[in-house]
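Journal club prep — side note

Before the paper discussion, L.F. wants everyone to see what a predicted structure for a comparable chain looks like in token form. Sequence:
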Amino acid sequence: MIERARLEKIKKLMLKEHDFFEFLARGRRGFVYKIMPDLIVKVERDDIGSQGSIENEYNMLEQLKDYDYFPKIIKYNKSLRFLVREFVKGDLIEKYLHEQSIILECLKMCRILDIKGINQGELTNPFKHIFVNNGKIMMIDFERAKPANNPKNVSQFVQYLIRNKAVKKSAELISAVKKYKNSCSDKIFNDLFLFVKLNFIH
């Protein structure tokens, strides 16, 4: 639910700059509206513990703005609790589970999150959060993301690959995942990356 008066204010603001304001989707923490073919507005809900989710997503994506794997924020309004960002198009990642180049690129994307100390929070089951469009990979939905001293993006994504039979569950791969959980150094990541490549199921 969104308070009608707040939504009307947001709609009025958007229609000053854009030709339309169309409902696109409803999520657990917000509603999404399309304002251009390549732009959306995410509006925070007023119910079910959604408070702070848009601010959190803004803060996380601001830290990732230098990387092409993540949508760019165009506008953020703290008082009205909405943001405008790039509209991410494409197919869900599950369609590409057996395309090695795509999956290895996803690992590099997850590695960036680990290096930045951000735990995305959805990568045990990321099929709705990673999109592929003409070979370009993007990750969305950072409302639940949190700063973390020991983020688990890479290890969670590898576990997702194993569970969905995209890679073989070899002893070497499991050992590499455990080592990475304890110390996500470049060397250990490179070892894990290699074992994913060697155990990939085409």
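L.F.'s comment for the group: The two ends are 44 Å apart (CA to CA). Keep this in mind when we get to the figures.
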